[in-house]
Task: inverse folding
């Protein structure tokens, strides 16, 4: 990839193909102090007010910089490296390859909490692992004063839901969700009925005195890829049929229609939703339903199988942060008479982790 000049025009050469860069594109990127605010990197001019037929008056190309003077008098010196970066409109996060895992995974992605961890390289490593595996566990996170709120807001901003800014997961009288009982919770994703579904869930263990109440995690990415390979018809139907997910309590009715396996515009894995307590397939042809029910049964078998499920016990201070679009989570049953089991939970969105990751990358020149 390189930049070339000819007749007051700038060209971008890539793998033998040479294309002109629109002069307006370059004019928009004029970056001197009169044009861009240094601190925010926001434009001080409105490019929609510029003449469309902007022309270049003078060009100078050196090894690292392109200098341009435009006919309207604007001058700029652009770093070649920055121009080249913009040619691949790449989301860096997508380039962190997911690592598929199953119950044989041994590295639990543990990181020890420290007061200033949010600004340290350690947090960068933790977030990279989060994107690779879909979860990380922070150990020794303070359990006082709803610290989870602090923790979440130090990565990004809490995403409030109908369960509040954060929620207490313990066995309660008259619960509005089965999570607030001592019943087992089979692997599920949270809030599939919300638009959009919260991206990342945090569960922070405050007390865990019971002998049961193990936490479970399943990699939805591994399981759906397996389903695709072994049962392509099942995979196909689960990527096609939009199911209604529903949550109802005294104050709200929440519904959304979505595929159990949602693909992106390239047909690649995007998100799983799974909560067979809350899903309602539409009334479609009998044959299709027949296939759909077999497919749901199979994926449920896989999600619940020992082959894919991690089972571990959270100790007080452990904070599990997991990708709610990729992983399923759950817990085994427990006996509330044995003692207290108390977790606190909340959600954040991907822009929080992405924003933090990019900030730390910039800060440590990584
Ligand atoms: C939840 C949940 C798991 C647990 O609250 O969404 O799945 O360990 N809890 O209690
Ligand atoms: Zn849950």
Result:
């Amino acid at each position: 990839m390189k930049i070339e000049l000819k007749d007051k025009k700038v060209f971008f050469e890539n793998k033998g193909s040479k294309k002109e860069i629109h002069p307006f594109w370059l004019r928009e990127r004029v970056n001197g102090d009169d044009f861009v605010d240094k601190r925010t990197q926001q434009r001080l001019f409105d490019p929609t007010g510029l003449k469309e037929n902007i022309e270049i008056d003078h060009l100078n190309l050196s090894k690292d910089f392109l200098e341009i003077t435009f006919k309207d008098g604007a001058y700029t010196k652009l770093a070649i490296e920055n121009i080249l970066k913009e040619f691949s409109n790449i989301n860096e996060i997508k380039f962190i390859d997911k690592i598929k895992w199953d119950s044989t995974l041994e590295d639990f992605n543990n990181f020890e909490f420290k007061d200033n961890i949010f600004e340290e390289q350690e947090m960068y490593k933790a977030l990279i692992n989060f994107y690779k595996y879909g979860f990380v566990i922070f150990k020794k996170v303070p359990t006082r004063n709803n610290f989870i709120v602090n923790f979440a807001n130090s990565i990004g901003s809490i995403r409030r839901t109908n369960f509040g800014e954060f929620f207490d997961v313990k066995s309660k009288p008259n619960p509005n969700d089965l999570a607030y009982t001592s019943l087992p919770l089979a692997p599920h994703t949270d809030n599939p009925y919300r638009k959009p579904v919260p991206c990342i869930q945090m569960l922070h263990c405050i007390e865990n005195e019971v002998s049961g109440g193990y936490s479970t995690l399943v990699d939805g990415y591994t399981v759906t890829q397996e389903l695709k390979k072994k049962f392509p018809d099942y995979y196909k139907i689960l990527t096609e049929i939009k199911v209604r997910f529903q949550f109802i309590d005294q104050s709200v009715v929440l519904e959304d229609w979505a595929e159990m396996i949602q693909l992106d515009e390239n047909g690649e894995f995007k998100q799983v939703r799974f909560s067979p307590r809350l899903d309602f397939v539409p009334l479609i042809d009998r044959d299709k339903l027949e296939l759909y029910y077999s497919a749901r049964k199979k994926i449920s078998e896989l999600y619940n199988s020992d082959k894919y499920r991690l089972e571990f016990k959270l100790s007080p201070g452990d904070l599990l942060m997991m990708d709610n679009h990729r992983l399923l989570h759950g817990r085994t049953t427990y006996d509330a008479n044995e003692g207290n089991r108390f977790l606190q939970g909340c959600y954040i969105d991907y822009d929080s982790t992405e924003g933090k990751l990019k900030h730390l990358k910039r800060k440590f020149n990584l």
Summary: The chain has two domains: 2-89, 94-363.
